[in-house]
Amino acid sequence: MIFPVAAAQDKAAVPEPPGLWTGPMVSDTPATLEGARVIDVPTLEALLRQKPLLVDVGPADRKPNGLPPSTIWKPTHRSIPGAVWFPGAGRADLSDEKVDALLRRIADLTNGDKSAPLVTFCRPKCWGSWNIGKRLVRAGYTSVHWLPAGITGWQERNDTTAVTPETGWAPNPPTGRSPSK
Fold this sequence. Notes:
Layout lengths: L4 H8 L24 E2 L2 H7 L5 E4 L20 E3 L4 E2 L10 H14 L8 E4 L5 H12 L5 E3 L3 H6 L5 E3 L18
Parallel strand pairs: 1-6, 2-4, 2-5, 5-6
Antiparallel strand pairs: 3-7
Protein name: Rhodanese
Organism: Sinorhizobium mexicanum
InterPro entries: PQQ_CXXCW, Rhodanese-like_dom, Rhodanese-like_dom_sf
């Protein structure tokens, strides 16, 4: 992990919560994720040789309020080439069924190998990527990497590609329940 000294000092002020983050999804995040390795973009570029599963949990764009019904709305989500996109999967309030479906799909994509390298990301200051990393660590994955710079950091050095949500995955509304997984 390579952070400028000032950035590392600023981030040190945000402690890791004991469980999933339930506050605002866009705010300062911790500099750590217990059980995972925090990485920067150059480290990810080197890690790509190991063919990690790249897990993008960035939100889907919302249709603007007041857009006339006759207007075609086709937003494009751009991500790191090869990433799988689970829009909103880093939210703390996912239903148990949605969490189970997410973990089953990750298990499918890793061929059940809990030591397979995984990289979670979203955008900078995004708790969603931190939360999904936390969920994967709790599920027993031992090579979880969190990229706090997210897609924005990636785009500063590399190209992106358009992605569609992972098959069968669509964002769901908040459930209002307390997160348990």
